[in-house]
Amino acid sequence: MGKSTTKDMTSGSSMKLILGFAVPLLLGMLFQQFYGLVDTMIVGQFLGVDALAAVGATGSINFLIVGFCQGICTGFALPVAQRFGARDYEGLRKYVGNSAVLSVIFGAVITVLTVVFCRGILQLMRTPSNIIDLSYHYIVVIFAGIPAIILYNLLSSYLRSLGDSFTPVVFLIIAAVLNIGLDLLFIVVFHWGVFGAAFATVVSQAFSGVLCLFLIMKKFEILHPKKDDWRLDAFYVKYLCLMGLPMGLQYSITAIGSVILQTAVNSLGSGAVAAMTAGSRISMFVVCPFDALGSTMATYGGQNVGAGKLKRLGEGLRSAIILGAAYSVLILLVLLVFGRNLVCLFVKSTETAVIAQADQFLIINAIFYIFLALVNIVRFLIQGMGFSGFAVFAGVFEMIARALVGMVFVPVFGFTAACFASPLAWIFADCFLIPAFFHCRNKLKAIGSQNSQTS
């Protein structure tokens, strides 16, 4: 069963459990972002600003499609966490089998559609003509590798649902080292350009997915579906879709606003796109602790709801917020001092305009990171509690904020307005999510009270 690597989050200190679970998860996310950073650094330093802008111009559509895949995989694993918390191992295996089949179906459909319509999407986004071919050569490879992305994210989500946040980290470290080596081989030695950067990412992701599969086959018998578990069952499919699709749509709806914003930034020229790319890559790396807290709270919420320990939800929320707030202050201070130096990792020091804009983007976003921490903590906790639909509404608020900035303010105020798009999106989402958490908790308490009266 792999008892030594699972973790029961239904008893003990919430702060210690959350921190203990999140730190290994954070290391994995840092390495995952690290090889994304390495891609961008090598592209910017060896291929130039236009190539850097070409990769950056695909960022929002990449987030829309790949984020949807990651979201449904995370959502498909939530019932596994709930059944594990309830000690219902038969139901757990049913969810594993049904979610695996659904993932294959979703993966095949998404891969075909995105590869076929890739260039048309870039044209609709008004990608600058001097970089559109480079953008296509990068993103079409990423889309073709969607099955590898789904393989890793689904299997690592299963492991995290059982409380094992450490093992996927080891695999990501291996994948990160592999990705760096392949980047240098494909770009510097083989001269494959941005195609090589994308291909290196897909190969590394596939490798980490295969490692997860091998581990599950060898050590986690609890995750081995029996023959009947592979048959799609309407009850399990419906609940999986109720958990997975809202989480996928949450990313996609949020990304629609990012696509609109990216389209507006594209109209400012490849220099602005390059600045946004460098700033976004650094930001994505430094906010990994918020992502780790979010994924931790999904497992924490799922296990405690499954165990019927609703009081621990509030305790966990408070602990996570304290951790998120402390890190927000720390990273703001770091970026104030070292922001420009970090940008210079991506572009040559002579690109002064790009460096100045990227630094501006970083500082403005960092001032509002506490609101991003709340978005991740509360949204994923709500999802773990079994209310994934609320995440979609939070995504709508984020989409509205980014679209508003992209359509109204960027054409008037330029790049500075674009820097405020994400902070505004986080604040909009928090205004919905915080009341939503208390509503969901009260609803669970009411259901528990009714069940105790009828039993």
Summarize the helices and strands and which ones pair or pack:
Layout: H1 14-47, H2 49-57, H3 59-85, H4 89-124, H5 132-144, H6 146-161, H7 167-189, H8 193-219, H9 234-266, H10 270-286, H11 288-306, H12 311-343, H13 352-367, H14 369-384, H15 389-413, H16 415-419, H17 421-454
Helix pairs in contact: 1-2, 1-7, 1-8, 1-10, 1-11, 1-12, 2-5, 2-10, 3-4, 3-6, 3-9, 3-11, 4-5, 4-6, 4-9, 5-8, 6-8, 7-8, 9-15, 10-13, 11-12, 11-14, 12-13, 12-14, 14-15, 14-17, 15-17
Average pLDDT works out at 89
By oligomeric state, this entry counts as single chain
Unreliably modeled segments: none
Q: What is the count of distinct domains?
A: 1
Q: What share of residues is helical?
A: over 70%
How does the overall form come out from the CA principal axes?
globular
Secondary structure category: mainly alpha
Span of the ends, CA to CA: 32 Å
Strand and helix order: HHHHHHHHHHHHHHHHH
Radius of gyration computed on alpha carbons: 21 Å
- Using DSSP, what is the number of strands? 0
Task: Estimate what percentage of residues fall within beta strands.
Answer: under 5%
**Sheet with most strands:** none
